[in-house]
Design goal:
One of its GO terms (molecular function) is hydrolase activity. Pfam families: Isochorismatase (PF00857). This is Isochorismatase hydrolase. This protein is of the alpha/beta class. The chain folds into 2 domains: about 55-215, Rossmann fold, CATH 3.40.50; about 215-250, no CATH class. About 50% of the residues lie in helices and about 15% in strands. The chain is built from 12 helices and 6 strands. The protein has helices at about 1-10, 20-35, 65-70, 75-95, 105-110, 115, 135-145, 155-170, 185-200, 205-215, 220-235, 235-250, and strands at about 55-60, 95-100, 125, 150-155, 175-185, 205. The chain has a 6-stranded parallel β-sheet with strand order 3-2-1-4-5-6, with helices on both faces. Helix 8 packs parallel to helix 9. The radius of gyration is 26 Å and the shape is globular.
């Protein structure tokens, strides 16, 4: 009798009770019908998540001797090579770039010459803070450049990259990290730092990917020689392949 009363109260609106599966079928059927009527038109244009030379600020952090000595997650030679690739690509494409160090004169030493050579005469913003985002001079430069998209790389991943990336995300910036142009005291430290950033919304990429994303089309003849030149010098096996193809066959990626 109690069960009958509950059923009666549920039908006071005058609408009959439906089995649980029926409204679900109606809902899914409606969604299917709506999807069938949608038309997707592909266009030969790049996605908004790809980086371009004029849509971001590159921030290179603490590529210094003292920081590199304890870096174990990446070979020192490869780290310098990848940092040089990023720096030369950014300089060549005219990317707005911030170079920052920590305790340059008193503890950590100069920034890698592979980076400073790519930006002759550019001032290095020296800090005391481990979190670059807490340095007023760096933030002033970020605001002056005025890009909502930021690309980071540097030493160490778990401290000097995690700090500013999470801080920038919190303030509404789009954040990318060039993972193989970063390093830390162990593989574990680097990988957990990357995990933490990606989980928070950071978009990871690699140094070669960064440069090729800036070039994007080999028909862009104005930057073709520069890009392939950087690849030949710093692009590892890919660069060797370019040298071989051009030397043996005079080959070109462009048409």
């Amino acid at each position: 009798m109690k069960i009958f009363k509950k059923v009666s109260s549920a039908t006071r609106t005058g609408r009959p009770l439906l089995p649980l599966s029926q409204p679900l079928k109606l809902q899914f059927g409606s969604q299917r019908k709506e999807a069938e009527t949608m038309t997707l038109n592909a266009t030969p244009t790049p996605g908004n998540l790809l980086v371009s030379p004029n849509d971001h600020t590159l921030i290179m952090i603490d590529f210094q001797s003292q920081m590199a000595f304890a870096t174990k997650s990446i070979d020192a030679v490869l780290l310098r090579n990848n940092a040089a690739l990023v720096a030369n690509a950014a300089a060549g494409f005219g990317v707005s770039t911030v170079l920052t160090t920590v305790a340059e004169k008193t503890f950590s030493g100069p920034m890698f010459s592979e980076i400073t050579d790519a930006f002759p005469g550019q001032a290095l913003l020296d800090r005391t803070s481990m979190n670059t985002w807490e340095d007023a001079a760096v933030i002033e430069e970020v605001n002056r450049i005025d890009r909502k998209r930021l690309v980071f790389c540097g030493l160490w991943t778990s401290v000097c990259i995690v700090g500013p990336t999470l801080s920038a995300l919190d303030q509404g910036f789009e954040v990318y990290v060039i993972a193989d142009a970063c390093g830390d005291v162990s593989d574990e430290a680097h990988e957990r730092a990357m995990d933490r950033m990606v989980q928070a919304g950071v978009r990871p990429m690699t140094s070669l990917q960064y440069m090729l994303e800036l070039q994007r089309d080999w028909a862009r003849t104005e930057s073709y020689e520069m890009t392939t030149g950087i690849a030949r010098k710093f692009g590892g096996a890919y660069g060797l392949g370019i040298i071989y193809a051009k030397s043996m066959f005079g080959a070109s990626e462009g048409h």
